[in-house]
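Two proteins were folded this term; both appear here.
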Amino acid sequence: MNASEHWIEAHIPAPWSKLFAATLWDSAAHCPADAGMQALLAFVKEEYDAAEAGGTPIYPPRPQLFAAFAETPPEQVRVVLLGQDPYHGEGQAQGLSFSVPQGVRTPPSLRNIFKERESDLGIPAEGASPCLRPWARQGVLLLNTTLTVRAASAGSHRKRGWEIFTDRILTHLDASDAPMVFVLWGADARRKHVLLQNPRHLVLQSEHPSPLSAYRGFFGSAPFSKINDYLKEHGLAPIDWAT
């Protein structure tokens, strides 16, 4: 086991270990899934090590790298809410797409998500907690397409291999016949629709909730009620979207 890679095993949530073995890292065999994932993990370790030695911070913090998977075991996934890369401001990213810790100022995209939730379901946007962990614990996989980022440098860890890993996760989930909803907000996420071919699932697409695009189709898209209608139609409990 290469010293540049073994660190990852401590962070892989046990319920996902079998799937991770085929997509990123095989904890039983102590080896990466392939050469591409080996290069990705070596790069990510180098970035975290440099940050912890006083260099540019990397977000989310290393222990929260796979927080989305830790909060939502694979057999509980009912909704996949796909983001882009983590927030790159200090104290924001926590390994869950669109979410920030309690007490952190709500980012603009998340404020717009709460505005649309209020319009759709009547849940007040004012005073909403910016931490979306309650959603994750009900089966909403809050997944970013890129799992890490350098501080103050949006997109800085793109095209390093994370997209291949998350594409594999999406493809695996799509192959399940358990009813599931995939939510693709923004151009980057919407490109993933080609991976989602199972007619049993619901795929919702719209513009990104960013202030730059929310008025071009995100507002008025009513995703929360559509998700719950689908879940109820398939005999599943709806998501309690309050935070």
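Next, the second protein.
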Amino acid sequence: MPFDPIREIAMVSMVTSYPFVLTVPATSPVRTVAELIALAKANPGKLNYSGSGVGSVHHLASELFNSMAGTEIVHVPMKGGAGELTELMAGRLDVLFEATTLTIPCIKSGKIRAVAITSRDRTSLLPGVAPVHDALPGFDVISFSGLGVTGGTPAASSAEEMKFFVEREIAKWNRMVDSRGIERQQLRSRRRLGHEKRGAARPSPCLDFRESCAFPPACAPGCRLQATDTHCCN
């Protein structure tokens, strides 16, 4: 990073946080983290996962899993959107860490299977799904939004809690990037190129297209979702 966020940003408060879900195709034999680890170790380099490019939460969470489980599940970069879920449902991806907002409709419809949640504790969104932490103690991945201001601004009462959280997250992911040999130049290049559209909502391919399709005129009868950024969800 060109700056030190801990010194140059005054943390004000955590706003929200949410876990990801470790998912597999509905046809996969895997139902638990232990079964996924056993399958991956029996087939090193043969299973794959995806996410929205190098340095994304999907990528780093998957590499953290590899690092802690001693597995070699291979990264297949994609450009984001609904493509990864489409490939998972088709069985062309073996594993996917994805946000609950996108995966829950697919899980409830039986198109994919939830294996574990990435937070340390269970979530009310999927109360029957155990945390990865139960099988790999210490595994904890969440996405968060927080409020920060220019360094030197008087701290709010919860600032120290947010600062501790951000420090811990930076240290954790730096250790993982170093241990997995991920090129930091790739991460910088990805940020410069802006592969992800910030702020753009990604509709789940398992929602009714009339509610979620970004391009309604394209959703003619008989249309099927393709692995592109055009979300036609019929």
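The chain is about 35% helix and 20% strand. The CA atoms of residues 14 and 146 lie 4 Å apart. These notes refer to the second protein only.
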